[in-house]
């Protein structure tokens, strides 16, 4: 059993009916990308992140965001030590391998912005001193839907663009919810999860996934997908070039976890919505009747598959 299968096995000890979400999280891990989980409270977002961290033999930190959390609570501070009469650097919880940013949209915009540098450049700057982070570094953030929860602040476009994937959580079906009741009614399966992958093994897989072949026709297909978001009549702001690169990386990760060293068009279509839907802004008129997800599905259907790959 390879390392990815071992992670899936351990996560399935706890989670029910989340195979797709687990695969997407593994894609983010392979490509050192960040993930935004969105759903109403109680659907298992935090549990997914905690279970994932239990499988990795690395550091895990959690920030429970509230409106009174300050940027220095995230990144760290320079504090004066009266014993040494000198300022010393005290880094915040962001210095880790897996960071759970719980309910990120309950933080103020100023605090949310404290994550911009570390998510893009894998480093933090505190009072002019730069601290690089050791790989891997991945942010798994959760948020509640803006439209249904009071006390939330929408994430700015610059921050949303730094998430490789946005994964919506749905309610479990009847049988899945019955399995959840049976699994958790008498014990805590999270305590049974074992660390099955080291940081060195993750780094090795991260290097391997970069060699997944991307055919020129696949590159063209990816670009047509992202450019389609910029030309659609219902979209005011389309996906950026960073989104094109994110779609390519996510497609490489999808191929890798399925044991292939090349990307199929289906890899692109299966991850496109998760990569692109949070990076586009609908027109005011379209937002009254459409969702980003619905518009993205339409764009995916409109872009023709490479002729020789159909």
Would you give an account of this structure?
The chain has 310 residues and is of the alpha/beta class. The chain has two domains: 200 residues, P-loop containing nucleotide triphosphate hydrolases (Rossmann fold, 3-Layer(aba) Sandwich), CATH 3.40.50; 99 residues, Helicase, Ruva Protein, domain 3, CATH 1.10.8.80. The protein is built from 13 helices and 13 strands. The protein has a five-stranded parallel beta sheet with strand order 3-6-9-1-10. Strands 2-11 form a two-stranded parallel sheet. A two-stranded antiparallel sheet has the order 4-5. Helix 2 packs across helix 11 and helix 10 crosses helix 11. The longest helix has 17 residues. It is globular and about 70 Å long.
Descriptive key words:
2 domains; alpha/beta; 41% helix; two-stranded parallel ribbon; globular; Rossmann fold; 310 residues; 13 strands; Helicase, Ruva Protein, domain 3
Please render the helix and strand layout as text.
Blueprint lengths: L2 H9 L7 H12 L4 E4 L6 H10 L1 E2 L2 E5 L6 H5 E6 L4 E6 L6 E5 L6 H4 L3 H6 L1 E4 L2 E4 L5 E6 L13 H4 L4 E4 L5 H11 L12 E2 H11 L6 H16 L3 E3 L3 H17 L7 H12 L4 E2 L9 H11 L8
Parallel strand pairs: 1-9, 1-10, 2-11, 3-6, 6-9
Antiparallel strand pairs: 4-5, 7-8, 12-13
């Amino acid at each position: 059993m390879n390392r990815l299968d071992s992670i899936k096995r351990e996560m399935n000890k706890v989670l029910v009916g989340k195979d797709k979400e687990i695969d997407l999280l593994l894609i983010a891990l392979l490509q050192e990308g960040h993930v935004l989980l969105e759903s109403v409270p109680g659907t298992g977002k935090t549990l997914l992140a905690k279970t994932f961290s239990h499988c990795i033999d690395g550091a895990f930190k959690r920030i429970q965001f509230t409106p009174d959390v300050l940027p220095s609570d995230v990144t760290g501070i320079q504090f004066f030590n009266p014993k040494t009469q000198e300022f010393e650097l005290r880094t915040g919880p962001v210095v880790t391998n897996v960071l759970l940013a719980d309910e990120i949209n309950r933080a103020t915009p100023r605090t949310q912005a404290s994550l911009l540098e570390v998510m893009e450049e894998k480093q933090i700057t505190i009072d002019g001193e730069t601290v690089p982070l050791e790989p891997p570094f991945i942010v798994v953030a959760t948020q509640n839907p803006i439209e249904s929860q009071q006390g939330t602040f929408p994430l700015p476009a610059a921050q949303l663009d730094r998430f490789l994937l946005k994964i919506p959580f749905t309610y479990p079906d009847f049988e899945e919810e019955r399995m959840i009741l049976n699994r958790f009614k008498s014990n805590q399966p999270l305590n049974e999860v074992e660390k099955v992958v080291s940081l060195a093994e993750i780094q090795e897989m991260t290097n391997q996934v970069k060699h997944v072949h991307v055919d020129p026709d696949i590159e063209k297909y990816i670009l047509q997908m992202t450019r389609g978001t910029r030309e659609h009549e219902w979209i005011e702001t389309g996906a950026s070039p960073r989104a094109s690169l994110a779609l390519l990386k996510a497609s490489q990760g999808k191929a890798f976890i399925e044991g292939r060293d090349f990307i199929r068009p289906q890899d692109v279509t299966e991850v496109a919505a998760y990569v692109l839907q949070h990076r586009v802004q609908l027109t005011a008129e379209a937002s009254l009747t459409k969702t980003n997800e619905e518009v993205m599905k339409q764009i995916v259907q409109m872009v023709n598959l490479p002729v020789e790959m159909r």
